Amino acid sequence: MSPNTQQSDIIQLRPILLKWWNARWWFALSVTVCFIAAFLFCKIRTEKYEIHASLLIEDKDKSSLNEISISDLLGNKGNVNDERFIIASHALMRETARQLGLERTHLVARDWTGKRHLYRDYPLDVVADEGIADTLRQSLEFKIKVAKDGDVKVKTYLNGDKISTVAADSLPIIVKTPCANFKIFATPDYRKGKPVSSTIIYEGYDAVAEDLMEDISIEPASKKTNVIKISMPTHDIDYARDIINTLVNRYNIRSISRRNEEGNRTIKFIDSRLELLTGDLAETEAEAESFKKNRNIADIAGEAEYQTLKKGKAEQALIEANTETEILKMALDFLSQPQNAYQLLPASFENKALQEAIDQYNKLILKHINLEKTARPGNRQLEMLSEQIDALRANITSSVSRAYQSSMVAVNQLKSEYESAQSKLGEIPSQERGFRDISRRQMVKEKLYLFLLQNREQTAMMLANATPKGIVIDEAFALKEPLTMKKRYIYLIALVIGLMIPPVVIAIKSLLRNKFSTLDELRSLTTLPILGEISLTRSTSPIVVYQGAQSSAAELFRQIRSHLQFIIQPKRGNVILITSTSSGEGKSFISVNLAATLALSGKKVMVVGADVRKPRLATYLSITEHRPGLTAYLANNHLTPADLIIPADDSRLFDVILSGAIPPNPAELLLSNRLDKLFEYLAGIYDYILIDSAPVGMVSDTFTLDRIAQATIYVLRANKTTFDDINFVNSLADEKRLTNIALVLNGTISKKGYGYGYSED
Q: What is the pLDDT of residue 12?
């Protein structure tokens, strides 16, 4: 890119602020409109609140520490998530919709703000045959209008398509649809004589349940708690509160019902088992009874103890009897031996009579022994004592013999008793084993019977004291602050938007436009010298510079006059070519007013109309004097330069040569040597010769005139000259197709400081 076309990358804040200041009325209008929109929005909108409820899920199935899993310790509440899905289930939502009658949605026109959803106190309602909402898969919309006189008109839509229009002179009214017949009637909240406009949407429970599932949020309060939070945004607090409370109630009813059903099934099972166990216990007890009867046993343990004791006693008695028998046998053997006839009898018997006889016998033996030591043979006393001893010994022998026989009988009897006890003790283990098997079966069935009885009572108590699994911590309540934005924030946003719209529009307009509007923008688009800018003026005269003029435009032309000396030498005969890219950019306006400005400085100035294809200078200056123009001079060798000049007058301070009639060959005429001679003549008379030429973007005539010019003033117009036009000017300078180009920007917006506060005409 040429250096002349390089643009500055530095953002100039002042031009931007100036644009905004110039558009201040647009800012005011934008803010006003936004405030009005915010006011209407606040009036029309319905406050939206969030309804909250919380539910504690009791885990009654876990009653001991052993049942706490690692997942519970880590905060994984699977049970809570299960219950959350149950609460959010389609079935519970459907039951809630059925209980609250949510298959009907009432939208009633209240005022100019439009229709509002009414959960209660609606004037009109609709009913259908029972069961329609259970199977309805389509949406029906009834638009109802009731006039003051009671006339009713109902338009029915099925899935958005109009299917019927029904009119009647009073309510109720029957509307027939492909789905069912619906009855529209007035509720107690309907006021006669007051017009009503209502829309009732009738949907199936399944569709309502789906909507509720989308609107209601059900989430665990945290990972380490058994609390579930339920929330729902709504414009109607009572509506959302009833939905959440009903949903929780249906969940608890369902959990109680499920527990009761489980309890009833448990009791039914226990009763059937108890009935079977009762028969089994009766059979087992009869078997035990028969077992004891057949074996003459009342108590096996007692019998074993008795037989053991009996055996012990029999054994002890047998030992004693054997001892006694042996003593009797020894005594009998002692008495039967002759050598022991007069010997002491060493025996001790429990039989007192026998023992007394033996004691008496032993006394007689001692007496005999003592007497025998002292008596002579044949001693009568000794003989009598011997006879007495013999008789007593015979008596004792007979008694001992009888006692021995009796003792033998007792020993045999004791042996029989001992053996009987021993035999019965041997039978006890097998009896005990058999009875223990019966007892074990009886004990198991008794324990099972008692266990079932205990569980039946516990189940019955559980049914009697059934409580919901979900404990309501907080019933549905509305948060204090609405979800919708507060009014002050809405107005603040309206203010911000109102202030942002004009800059955005200006920025978009700047991005989309291909034209520039300020001197600063022009400076950013080119490096060519700029003589100045001319602002728009309210004056209707083409010449705004005259003696004593104090307008901002006159002051700006004076500045251009001052800057002009920097591009040309202030000498006599300066020819300045004034052109533009296209017509309408103010080329002629700049030419005549710059000429007037130079004339006011004491210079002699000539303006030559060289736009031979579209001459307008005469009309522009309101010149009525008829003189030959430039084209006539170039075509007629008999004309002299003096014949062309229209001298200055009171309305203008400079001389003029008009372009004349439009020739058939303008380009060839401008190449004539007579043109050069004309300007040589004028250079000898005038200090400045301004050529009002044709636009260079339309014809090439201006390039032909460049040979006689010392400088070129290129006129640009704000909001008309395009960026491509600037690039075209830059290329002309780079290619040196025009001499000493300087720019003048015409048609800018008047700014404070122009004319130093002088009046603007």
A: 61
